[in-house]
Write a structure and sequence with these properties.
The protein is 37% helix and 10% strand. With 221 residues, it is α+β, with helices and mostly antiparallel strands. The strands form two sheets. The chain has a four-stranded antiparallel β-sheet with strand order 4-5-7-6, with helices on one face. It has a three-stranded mixed β-sheet with strand order 1-2-3. Its cofactor is pyridoxal 5'-phosphate.
Length: 221
């Protein structure tokens, strides 16, 4: 890849994609990856799995500065005994969280990754179809450009996004969030992934969104 010419490392955020979307770190030449356990992996929040390529590892081991203690990947690697020597202590880990992640990976292994990826793609396509039947518009127009785990929806002019999210939570006990960055006040984000990646969940969320839109008439905003 072109960035290799300049010694640049490629870092990828896979927080809302790992497990639910095909991601091939080695084949794609990715040097560093981080993710979370509470998204498509369906685990509890609290730990952040990371992975590094050989290029990244050489870069880390040849550094000439010392990062803050809690962000020192060399110290963390020593705790995980990545160097094949005596395990070093860095912090007290949470065995329940690690065990929970292991159980989540076991469940995905039973399904197999290709089938899990396909499940996310099919459920999300179904969810988008249901939303459009209710008159919602998706922020990303082309289906091939959309992420199969998070859907970004725009509301008709005149609707307050904060009120929409609040009503949805109060009436239907469903929590979604508003947009970030340039989409603040312009969209809402809906995550259907992991164990929630089913047509039953997609139907329930779509109906709740439609009811919220209908209930929050412009005159009541």
């Amino acid at each position: 890849m072109y960035f290799y010419r300049y010694g640049t490392l490629l870092i990828v955020d896979t927080v809302v994609s790992i497990g639910g979307v095909p991601f091939l770190m080695d084949e794609w030449g990715v040097d560093a990856v981080y993710t979370s356990t509470q998204k498509a992996l369906s685990g509890p929040a609290g730990i952040t799995p990371v992975a590094f390529s050989e290029r990244a590892e050489k870069k880390i081991n040849s550094r000439t500065h010392n990062p803050p203690f809690y962000f020192d990947i060399k110290l963390l690697a020593a705790q995980w005994n990545c160097y094949g020597i005596t395990r070093a202590y860095h912090h007290t880990m949470s065995p329940p969280l690690i065990w929970a992640l292991r159980c989540c990976l076991m469940e995905i292994s039973k399904i197999t990754l290709p089938k899990f990826w396909q499940q996310h793609a099919e459920v999300t396509a179904y969810f988008h179809k249901r939303l459009q039947e209710y008159g919602f518009k998706l922020l990303v127009p082309k289906p091939e450009d959309r992420l199969p785990t998070v859907t970004t929806v725009t509301l008709p002019p005149g609707y307050d996004y904060a009120n929409f999210v609040k009503y949805l939570r109060k009436k239907h006990n469903i929590v979604i969030l508003g947009g970030l960055g340039p989409t603040v006040g312009k969209a809402v984000r809906i995550g259907i992934m992991g164990v929630n990646s089913t047509k039953e969940v997609a139907d329930r969320v779509a109906r709740a969104l439609a009811d919220t839109l209908k209930s929050l008439t412009k005159s009541s905003l």
